Amino acid sequence: MNIWAVANQKGGVGKTTTTVALGGLLAAWGLRTLLIDIDPHGSMTSYFRYDPEATDDSTYSMFDASVKRYPLDPHRLVHPTGTEGLGLIPSAMPLAALERQSGTLKGMGLVLKRTLSELRDDYDYALIDCPPVLGILLINALAACRHLIVPVQTEFLALKGLERMVRTLRMVNRSRPRALPHTIVPTFFDKRTNASRESLHVMQTSYADTLWPGVIPMDTRLREAARAGLPPAVYDPRSRGASAYAELLDFLRTDTRAV
Amino acid sequence: MNIWAVANQKGGVGKTTTTVALGGLLAAWGLRTLLIDIDPHGSMTSYFRYDPEATDDSTYSMFDASVKRYPLDPHRLVHPTGTEGLGLIPSAMPLAALERQSGTLKGMGLVLKRTLSELRDDYDYALIDCPPVLGILLINALAACRHLIVPVQTEFLALKGLERMVRTLRMVNRSRPRALPHTIVPTFFDKRTNASRESLHVMQTSYADTLWPGVIPMDTRLREAARAGLPPAVYDPRSRGASAYAELLDFLRTDTRAV
Ligand SMILES: Nc1ncnc2c1ncn2[C@@H]1O[C@H](COP(=O)(O)OP(=O)(O)OP(=O)(O)O)[C@@H](O)[C@H]1O
Ligand SMILES: Nc1ncnc2c1ncn2[C@@H]1O[C@H](COP(=O)(O)OP(=O)(O)OP(=O)(O)O)[C@@H](O)[C@H]1O
Ligand SMILES: [Mg+2]
Ligand SMILES: [Mg+2]
């Protein structure tokens, strides 16, 4: 099972959209795919019409079982998304409290990694949607994944956020035997504006060796797909957003770093 | 001194842009204005070309002085922004660690409120830019402010974030003598798309009594202002974004709840 995390400490850059878009494509290509929402806000959970306020079997259950030491069968946590071959482990509100409690609990950084290893024979891909905050939940995702996807809006303030994410990655890599490979994905690209073109140019010069050579364009069909509760490739496969994500997925799957 | 906080637990909705835009206008209208960056990511700090990694006198100093019990003159924390009449207390990276440490320290929720009361004779307005996370820093801002401004992107996923923010507010109001008044501000509005028009309609029906009757349009001049390090009203006062913020400020100042 390939485990990818989608993360960036900056908010609103397209993490949830990227996770759902790639997951929907993998399922459409016939690969058994699991989406995991460890953002306490639960945008991906809401995307598929579940309520993060009311979810029993969720990513929170993994942490709860680990702290209270009761057995948990992770297969119980998987919910249908309405798309064939695409499962979801939703988020739940109590995840937010973990941050404050986690300071005192040892070994909390490996809960997700351990749980996913019990599901490795049932899925080809697992994609983790992360919160925009450096804390115990993001640490869990970085420890569990084999490849990190970093969506970055093509504009000035987001470049600062990217510097921060790359620094976090450098810190995390110090405690890993092998550095975690990552791919930077430019999002919200609008070729008509200076802000987009200039920030893309900065990315191409400063992050040449980890930057995906394409861009995800600004495309309102991606918002409409969220409103419809469908992955972009299901909602409108010929839209500019959906086709750009198909190109990205093709790059990630052939890029040896990702396997 | 009027203290306003700008907050929403959803990321990327225009909190920093709104804080800077309103602050720049207040200063241009001759009012002594202080901006406070309490987001560990420090977008507003980067906006004015300070480095959150390298800031000594910052919002973090307030918490450090409170925990270690040393005297601190808050006037030392104020940095120039290049705009006449507009000061900034920048963010710093160690703010991020407060979340994990704060669980064990009592009275951490009132540090900002106490520090700002020492500055009340020097400024007419203080505007607080908040992180997109419910935690000790957001709690500080909600305890310190008299009015809350909630920017909300006009699209589907952001409406879920708004429900969450309103729930948080209800929780915070239980421990206040008087409920904290708030104003919901629709942002990124694009009248050409269904997503914008429909979500605005939902806001108008579900939040009629706290919704600002205008909208902040999608306007790339707002991004360009950030790249130039200038408040929108200084960068391009006739842009659609800057004029919409002037209308919002006029509404907030005449709306008796805000004083
Ligand atoms: N390329 C795009 N073009 C237009 N809209 C987009 C694009 N990508 C994402 N969006 C929209 O922008 C909003 C923010 O995206 P999304 O929620 O995926 O970001 P995020 O990084 O997951 O945010 P958060 O930090 O809150 O988790 C969503 O409403 C989404 O539909
Ligand atoms: N009305 C608008 N039109 C176009 N771009 C905008 C608008 N408002 C904000 N932006 C841009 O969108 C990006 C996100 O805005 P901003 O950083 O203000 O959001 P935020 O809510 O503060 O994000 P975070 O959750 O990361 O703190 C910024 O690059 C900003 O320049
Ligand atoms: Mg998200
Ligand atoms: Mg911000």
Strand content of chain A: 5-15%
| Strand line-up of the largest beta sheet of chain A | 3-4-2-5-1-6-7
The helicity of chain A comes to: 40-55%
What structural category characterises the helix and strand content of chain A?
alpha/beta
- Give the H and E element order of chain A: EHEHHEEHHEHEHEHHHH
Oligomer: homodimer
Please state the average pLDDT score of chain A: 91
> Ions, cofactors, ligands: which are bound?
adenosine-5'-triphosphate, magnesium ion
Sum up the overall morphology of chain A in one term.
globular
Main beta sheet of chain A: 7 strands, mixed
Largest interface: A-B, 40 and 40 residues
Radius of gyration of chain A: 17 Å
Q: Count of helices of chain A?
A: 11
Low-confidence parts of chain A lasting 5 or more residues at pLDDT below 50?
Answer: none
Count of extended strands of chain A: 7
What is the straight-line distance between the termini of chain A? 9 Å
How would you sum up this structure in a few lines?
The structure is a homodimer of 259-residue chains. Chain A is α/β, with parallel strands linked by helices and 259 residues long.
Task: Report what the structure shows.
The model of chain A has no long low-confidence stretch (mean pLDDT 91). Chain A is 43% helix and 13% strand. The N and C termini of chain A lie close together (9 Å). In chain A, α1 crosses α11. At the A-B interface, α2, α4, α7, α8 and α9 of A face α2, α4, α7, α8 and α9 of B. The structure holds adenosine-5'-triphosphate (2 copies) and magnesium ion (2 copies). One adenosine-5'-triphosphate sits at the interface of chains B and A.
